[in-house]
Amino acid sequence: MNWHQRILSIVKRRKKLLFLLALLIFLYLNNSSLLADPPAGKPLLLAHRGLGQTFDMAGITNDTCTATRIHPPEHPYLENTIPSMRAAFQYGADIVELDVQPTKDGQFAVFHDWTLDCRTDGSGVTREKTMEELKKLDIGYGYTADGGKTYPFRGKGIGMMPTLDEVLSTFPDRSLLIHIKSDDPQEGVLLADRLGQLPPEHLDRLAVYGGDRPIAELEKRLPQLRTMSKASMLRCLLQYEAIGWTGIVPKACKETQLHIPEQYAAWLWGWPNRFLSRMEQAGTRVILVKYADGFSGGFDRPEDLKDLPKDYSGVIWTNRIDRIAPLLKK
Predict the structure, then answer these.
(1) CATH assignment at residue 275
(2) Mind telling me which residue stretches traverse the membrane in this protein (predicted)?
(3) pTM recorded for the entire structure
(4) Among 4, 12, 102, 307, which lies 20 to 30 A Cα-Cα from 208?
(5) Phi then psi for 236, rounded to 5 degrees?
(6) How many secondary structure helices (H) and strands (E) does the chain include?
(7) How far apart (Å, rounded) are the C-alpha atoms in residues 252 and 237?
(8) Is residue 10 included in any domain, yes or no?
(9) Residues 6 or more apart whose Cβ sits within 8 Å of residue 296
(10) pLDDT confidence tier of residue 311, bands split at 50, 70 and 90
(11) pLDDT tens digit string along 180-195?
């Protein structure tokens, strides 16, 4: 190699290094929260299933009956009931999440489990019952904190399984997050028919998430409704990881909702301040969730709040709104 070629080779290497350096500087300046003000506003609190009994998450599976492993009760509320939702809002919840199951007679019951055997004095598949049958059950029947020695909620949950209509009429001016527990597309059609009867201002306060197929049907029929499924969230996050470093928010991330596991949030371009600002401008709600053993958990203890970014302004998922709301208000 003569001296002309050596000089050209050195120049080319330096150009590559300068380009790489410039790219790294751009990535830092465009995504560092140290150089960005946090979005205005205080964090919002989402009460998971209202205010209910919590349980030990260690080793649970999809088939675990969580009612048989609750912590010693500290309050009288059962999840997914109108009293539990009312209490959650009174403690300071901005959003209440609830689960729905379709019934044999075309209604929606507000209940978490696919079957009745764990929590209630009934048995069988929830969706194979009429709402009249479900209303006769004691939804507190199966709860125990001492391995079955005592059942502190037996007899106290009779007739307390609400319909979705009852919840919507009780809280018409509150924000609700509805969880479809199945991947049945017909459930999305049925829910769209029901929610489509609401006035626009009421619909604006609702959001729905769940299985890919029912959410897809819901989106077709109510495109103005905020929705999320696993597929839509993955589509958004994968596209954002590909181009988000530029500051561009892909269309898949606009006007939607994202449930972000707290332990993975730091991998998002611009986390936290720039990411939250970008999603806010895109009309997307960011909900920070804790996960335990692969299951969604919440910011339920005072020490959990230490894991929140400074000046965090998104939504915080909690199972203990009674504990967390007073701390955040301070």
Answers:
(1) 3.20.20.190
(2) none
(3) 0.92
(4) 307
(5) -65, -50
(6) 10, 10
(7) 8
(8) no
(9) 48, 259, 289, 290, 317
(10) confident
(11) 999 999 999 999 999 9
Residue 3 pLDDT greater than 60, yes or no: no
Q: CA-CA distance, 287 to 266, in Å (whole number)? A: 14
d(CA 321, CA 192): 29
Q: Please state, as a whole number, how many other Cβ atoms lie within 10 Å of the Cβ of residue 77.
A: 20
Residue 100: pLDDT over 60? yes
At 13 the pLDDT is: 66
CA 129/CA 183 separation, integer angstroms: 19
pLDDT in tens, 21-61: 665 665 555 677 766 777 777 899 999 999 999 998 888 88
Residue-number span of the structural domain to which 314 is assigned: 43-329
What's the pLDDT tens digit per position in 230-268? 999 999 999 999 999 999 999 999 999 999 999 999 999
In a domain, 24, yes or no: no
Taking 80 as the threshold, does the pLDDT of residue 296 lie above it? no
Say what the pLDDT of residue 106 is.
96
Structural contact between residues 264 and 280, judged by C-beta atoms closer than 8 angstroms? no
CB-based contact 107:126 (threshold 8 Å): no
Closest to 211 in 3D by CA, of 183, 177, 179, 178: 183
Task: Tell me whether residue 234 is in a domain.
Answer: yes
